[in-house]
Amino acid sequence: MTDRDDLLKLVRDLAVVNGRVTLSSGQVADWYVDLRRLTLHHAGAPLVGRVLLDLVDDWEFDAVGGLTLGADPVAAAMLHAAAARGGRPLDAFVVRKSDKAHGLQRRVEGPDVAGRRVLAVEDTSTTGGSVLTAVEALREAGAEVVGVAVIVDRGAEKAVRAAGLSYRSAFLSADLGRQG
């Protein structure tokens, strides 16, 4: 089995939750993908890092992150996977949901992204709203966003591509035996 196969099994076993739920987009769904159950899991996190690095292997970027909270463990997993592989230094960053009113008042935390090529990530995305909010903040901070990558796409691809961004997902809803 490949890392991708192992990750898909863990997504199905750990993260898919049946039952009516309101998503962050405001949409109501009959199932939920709680990927923090996976991205913060001892076996899941390393797989997330390796699979997403493989997914975007042909893209050039030197920092990864997205809107807190869904993107944080994804970016950390990719940072650690890149370090374990060697040869490609990769920084991570966190995009706050709103401006910070104290301290350095930074919306994007971590190593400075100004003038750098960055990858925006998310654990799962239905409308693309969260990741597009992160992209906007990254551009305001002076970053060049090379694309968006997610673990599970529930329908965001069209909106992200309409915003002029390259987009990749490790899995689609159909890979989980679901629609939307």
Automatic annotation (TrEMBL):
One of its GO terms (molecular function) is glycosyltransferase activity. InterPro entries: OPRT, Or_phspho_trans_dom, PRTase-like, PRTase_dom. Residues 41-160 form the Phosphoribosyltransferase domain. Pfam families: Pribosyltran. SUPFAM superfamilies: PRTase-like. It comes from the Bacteria. CDD domains: PRTases_typeI (cd06223). Pathway: Pyrimidine metabolism; UMP biosynthesis via de novo pathway; UMP from orotate: step 1/2. Keywords: Glycosyltransferase, Magnesium, Pyrimidine biosynthesis, Transferase. 5-phospho-alpha-D-ribose 1-diphosphate binds at R96, K97, K100, H102, E122, D123, T124, S125, T126, T127, G128, G129, S130. Orotate binds at T126, R154. Belongs to the purine/pyrimidine phosphoribosyltransferase family. PyrE subfamily. Catalyzes the transfer of a ribosyl phosphate group from 5-phosphoribose 1-diphosphate to orotate, leading to the formation of orotidine monophosphate (OMP). This is Orotate phosphoribosyltransferase.
